[in-house]
Design goal:
single chain, 4-stranded antiparallel β-sheet, elongated, 11 helices, 6-stranded mixed β-sheet, Rossmann fold, Alpha-Beta Plaits, alpha/beta
Length: 308
């Protein structure tokens, strides 16, 4: 398993991680979530020995990464899709890793096939798209057939088929009893992939729970569509205890939180608001996550005028 034991990391006066204490267990996919600047990447770097903790420990199977005899056989990691020499072919990149870690060249060909880039294995990586680089990074993580796998934003740059492939790969690895930790900002994908989530904000743990538990913290949304330009204000007056906002993608779609569909329908009828659509939308991981981290978003943009 992976264990963060009161792990803290400071850069001067800045606290990047503040006494992080969590256990990432085998046999499930754990999503590592948080806003930009929350400390996710720093925590992963400390775990993999790329940075030293100011206080506390980050352990893999009870040992520091630096103390692992065969690190690539114990833990596979993919943190940066661009961390490959552009003049080296994909196969030579993996061969170099294999030789250093006493891994058979046959394993290189196996993982190239597994991630779907065997046909371009002899091409220099400078010609690779971001999605192809992601696949190469995942191949490197799988090379030593490790029990622990750590991924930072592994689906960036992948097409729909590639995203689905990564999802099945991660769940398959966890199904084999491996420990899988994956950081991502794509909440809909994490909802489908992660069994468990750890959420941090400003370096502190905000949640450590089953994915569906965090989803359950989100209220259902009543979605209505109306051609009436006064619909939002009329519903706000009729439902003073509810939040009524305009959808970002559609000015005639309203989202109501804090009232059920019967209350919304009756309020619209009483106010003479014409509705073309009214339906309940179940809570999502994104909604539960945003509700949890709303006070810990360090880099928040100002909403567009008229959307509040």
């Amino acid at each position: 398993m992976i264990e963060f034991d009161r792990m803290s990391k400071r850069y001067g006066d800045t606290i990047a991680v503040d006494e992080l204490s969590v256990v990432i267990e085998p046999g499930r996919v754990t999503g590592f979530l948080g806003p930009n600047g929350a400390g996710k990447s720093t925590s992963m770097r400390v775990l993999l020995g790329l940075d030293h903790p100011t206080f506390g420990r980050a352990l893999i199977g009870g040992r520091r990464y630096a103390d692992l005899a065969d690190p690539l056989r114990s833990v596979g990691a993919h943190l940066d899709a661009h961390s490959v020499h552009p003049g080296r072919s994909a196969r030579n990149h993996l061969l170099a890793l294999a030789r250093v870690n006493r891994i058979s060249p046959r394993r290189v060909d196996e993982v190239l096939e597994q991630v779907g880039i065997a046909k371009v294995a002899r091409n220099r990586t400078r010609s690779f798209s971001l999605g192809m680089r992601q696949r190469l990074g995942i191949a490197a993580a799988l090379l030593g057939d490790p029990e622990v796998l750590v991924f930072d934003e592994p689906v960036n740059g992948l097409d729909t088929d590639g995203v689905r492939w990564v999802r099945h790969l991660l769940r398959g690895l966890a199904g084999e009893g491996r420990t899988v930790l994956v950081s991502s900002h794509l909440m809909a994908e994490m909802h489908q992939t992660a069994d468990h989530v750890v959420v941090i904000g400003r370096g502190r743990v905000l949640a450590d729970c089953a994915t569906e538990e965090l989803v359950g913290r989100a209220e259902d949304t009543i979605v209505v569509r109306s051609p009436d330009p006064e619909a939002r204000d009329e519903l706000r007056r009729a439902l003073p205890g509810a939040s009524v906002t305009t959808a970002e993608h559609d000015p005639v779609e309203l989202h109501v939180v804090g009232a059920d569909e019967h209350q919304v329908g009756e309020a619209a009828h009483a106010r003479g608001v014409l509705l073309h659509h009214l339906a309940r939308r179940a809570g999502t991981l994104e909604a539960g996550y945003l509700r949890l981290v709303q006070d810990d978003i360090e880099y928040a943009a100002v909403p567009a005028a008229g959307r509040s």
